[in-house]
Hints:
Blueprint: E1 6-11, H1 17-29, E2 33-38, H2 48-55, E3 59-60, H3 66-70, H4 73-80, E4 83-89, H5 91-99, H6 105-112, E5 117-121, H7 125-129, H8 131-142, E6 146-147, E7 151-154, E8 160-164, H9 168-180, H10 182-185, E9 192-197, E10 202-203, E11 209-210, H11 217-228, E12 232-237, E13 249-252, H12 256-266, E14 271-274, E15 281-283, E16 304-306, H13 310-315, E17 324-331, H14 335-346, E18 350-355, E19 367-368, E20 370-374, E21 377-380, E22 384-385, H15 386-403
Parallel strand pairs: 1-2, 1-4, 2-3, 4-5, 5-6, 9-12, 9-14, 12-13, 14-17, 17-18
Antiparallel strand pairs: 7-8, 10-11, 15-16, 18-20, 19-22, 20-21
Amino acid sequence: MLSGKNILLIISGGIAAYKSLDLIRRLKERGTGVRCVLTAGGAQFVTPLSVAALSEEAVFQGLFSLKDESEMGHIRLSREADLLVVAPASADLMAKMAAGLADDLASTILLATDKPVLVAPAMNTRMWEHPATQRNLATLLEDGLRVVGPGQGDLACGEVGAGRMSEPLEIVGAIESLLIGDAAAAPLKGRRAIVTSGPTYEAIDPVRFLANRSSGKQGHAIAAALARLGAEVVLVAGPNNQPDPAGVMVHDIESAAQMLAACETALPADIAVCAAAVADWRVAGEAEQKMKKDGSGRPPSLALVENPDILATIGQLNGGRPGLVVGFAAETEKVVDHGQSKRTRKGCDWIVANDVGTGTGVMGGDENTVHLITAQGVENWPTMSKDAVADALARRIADHFAAE
């Protein structure tokens, strides 16, 4: 939706500047043009070379650059963008904006612009809570600027509280709302989604379990992407190290039986995306005590029973079935063939199939190459980050309901 839009990104001083590099990448993935202004403070944390390489544009730094200012650079930059984004917005730059100061390129552009401005604050929690910063924030809001964040959590200084810059994809969502409107940016508003993520742990004894290598990255990314499009999302997550997505209700579980129970409790829903790598088997009976070696060299005998099939259970509900049920097929061979068979066998509408044997799709990686299998055929998607796969799937889901 941001294809063809132009963003002027102002990067001020603060450790959160590293997130701005990822923000540039996320915007470029969406076909957005990005020009960047790097303040003197920002350049202490990220280099002009890294910003230029990601934005594919020259980086602007000096107010008195002879070449740029001979063409009225600060005026041109302030007017040619569809939106100005300040990320991170330091306490110092917010104070300059509130006071109308213009003593460097960034503050001069912000004073000279006639375009909307989105600010993503980032600072120590005491600085954020200080009355001066809050007065400046109130002034900026009264002047019509939009603000995204900051979030709560661990800060780079070691303290905990408000002051974390919003994550890049949260900022992208705010940009979409500003440039294309809340309704278009939230096409799933009023829809409820259940997403499963991560592995399940099936206990053998109090210290051992059966599991797999799923990291939860893809499932958590899908939950976040659906929430950004306005859906009410319930994430049922097996053991993982991923941060809880913003605006998502998270239910942490361990076993497949617990995951199924949590999904059934979360019904009714319009959408179900079963991205978790659920263990197919569990031991018939968990040992009450740790199983010890007996010196014979013989391994213990483990009787296995099949776990409940969560995707098939949801996909084949007679009443209360979600309008769209999406499953995942992590395969090591014949990826599309096995995915097509699974879609029919499980009774789901779509299957997202990927090769986890080798290459980018290996479990725990940051990228995925997937094939979206529907009743109409197979869509072969290019290799993308798992966040980008999640965004593309969420958009595809939104398009499905729009077509209805």
